[in-house]
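ok trying this again, last paste got cut off
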Amino acid sequence: MTLANKAIALLLLAALLLLALAVCAGASTANAAGFGSGERAQFSALTHKAIAEGGYPGIVIGVWAPHGRTFLRAYGKRELSSGRRAALRPNDHFRIASVTKTMTATVVLRLVQERKLSLDTPLSRFYPGVLGAPRITIRNLLNHTSLIPTLDQSTVESLVRVPSQRFDPAEVIGAALTQPFLPPPWGYSDTNYLLLGKIVERVSRHSFAYELRRDVLAPLHLTHTSFDPGTRIPAPAAHGYTLLNGRMVDTAGWTTSYGWAAGSVVSTLGDLHRWTPALARGTLLDARLQRERLRWVATGQPGFEYGLGIFEIDGFVGHNGLIPGYDSAILYSPSSHTTVVALANSDPALDEPPPQPITSTLELAIALGHTAAAAR
């Protein structure tokens, strides 16, 4: 298994802990400039392969490289029930799942920058009843070294029973904390970011949604990005599909409130094009805090390291996300100054028995980024 595939398998395992839920149509609306016909053909071939292997109804991709080289394209369907009229479009809204963590981490770091919080602040200041809280810091929550367990299976089961319900983040946190802690040295956990969202509210005395708009969305003019911890997806919306009990289920009406500050943002290809390099370059932070953000910790998976709400893999920095019906990845190459975004309206067959499929938008984005870099 390649270095990239090992890291992808780890992230898929993390998604399975959250969501153990037990072809390809022609390309539409395209925009390509600067890349040669060979690169354009490779981009399309890689995406067709991902759709075929991952069983995605559709994928939208964006590749932006220096000198104005751009490739934007939508492939496949946005609604399986509407026939040919429902082609996916590059401006459709997608749930971006754990890519939300990159924004939540930035909100936390902005509070650190304003001296309202410290990376060394112990969790016990806010949650004294959590096991080991005096030794768990804000930094540990951000880089997943707290070893706090991820969401409990009871939350998953409740979601499947009533997909449109509203979860209380405090109750989701409470259920997660009834489980054993994760083994060292590192453990990916949505609970870390639910806790961070609640800490943001306590420190700022504003809602998390308000702080996200103030610190991330407004400064970067991300006008098509929103925090939607419910059942809403702004129009035009890509309907998401997940395989549940052997059949494809439309999840566009499912809640994301159980994910809240860990996974409830909705966005578009265009907005994520602006967000990804801003994240990687530290546009919204001072230089010191950006260095802290990019201070990598070992995950136990060689070639895959995690910072403060961002990871490094195969020469790229960014994040990916999986939620029922949606699979997303954002990557930036510091060496080639290339940005890649891939958004799909399904997830990699989360209820199939192990070994789980490796195909994902993260794997696709890495391949697209290397193809773009080789074209320099």
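PB: full thing came through this time. Residues 1-10, 12-27, 352-357 have pLDDT under 50 and may be disordered.
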